[in-house]
Amino acid sequence: MRRHTLGDYLRKKRLEADLSQNEVGRELGYHGQFVSNWENNKASPPAPVWRQIMKLYGIPMNELLSVLVEDSEKKWKEVLSQSKKRKSS
């Protein structure tokens, strides 16, 4: 079963809000390419922007924290898995 990434979540919320990446970028004071990078897991929004994202997309704090924790756990499991593979080679 594929676990969704933070980028998947942000894309889903943007589409539910019926906004383009450029519209989100303008609203948050960023270029639309930054929003694309967030949604494609190439970067994460800076900490000060999260409150604006929550307000723009109507995300409750507990929901966002749950997604952030799940995404972080997934990334750490991948890092640890890669580390184990290197040690066993």
CATH class: Mainly Alpha
% residues in beta strands = under 5%
Mean pLDDT: 89
Low-confidence stretches: none
Describe the protein's topology.
Elements: H1 6-16, H2 21-28, H3 32-39, H4 50-57, H5 61-88
List the main descriptive attributes of the protein structure presented here.
89 residues, single chain, 434 Repressor (Amino-terminal Domain), 71% helix, mainly alpha
Care to describe what's here?
With 89 residues, the chain is an all-alpha fold. It has helices at residues 6-16, 21-28, 32-39, 50-57, 61-88. The longest helix is centred in the last third of the chain and has 28 residues, at 61-88. The protein is elongated and about 50 Å long. The mean pLDDT is 89.
How would you sum up this structure in a few lines?
The chain is mainly alpha-helical. It has helices spanning 6-16, 21-28, 32-39, 50-57, 61-88. The protein is elongated and about 50 Å long.
